[in-house]
Amino acid sequence: MSEPESPVLRLIPYLAAITVTVFATLSVVGTGESNLLVTLVVAAVGYFGTYFIVKLIIHALVTRIGSDHHDDHD
């Protein structure tokens, strides 16, 4: 999967992943029943899951818009 050329499109997956990680970790810690291992697992799964899903969505949007854009010039 190639990287988008825009710096903003490259930054969005990281920001989304950090945001989801913070909120998921806070919700797990807020229950008071989790230990450190559970908290770390939730944080890691939340971060990497969000990062790759957002990156996949951005790639799909960029290629769809890019392919539509090239069809207009033909």
Question: Would you summarize the structure shown here?
Answer:
This protein has two helices and no strands.
Could you characterize what this model shows?
This protein is an all-alpha fold and 74 residues long. It has one domain (7-68). It contains two helices and no strands. It has helices at residues 7-31, 36-73. The longest helix has 38 residues, at 36-73.
Biggest pleated-sheet summary: none
Unreliably modeled segments: none
Distance between the termini: 25 Å
Helix content: over 70%
The general outline is elongated
Extended strand count: 0
Task: Give me some keywords for this one.
74 residues; mainly alpha; elongated; transmembrane; membrane; transmembrane helix
List the helices and strands and how they pair.
Layout: H1 7-31, H2 36-73
Helix pairs in contact: 1-2
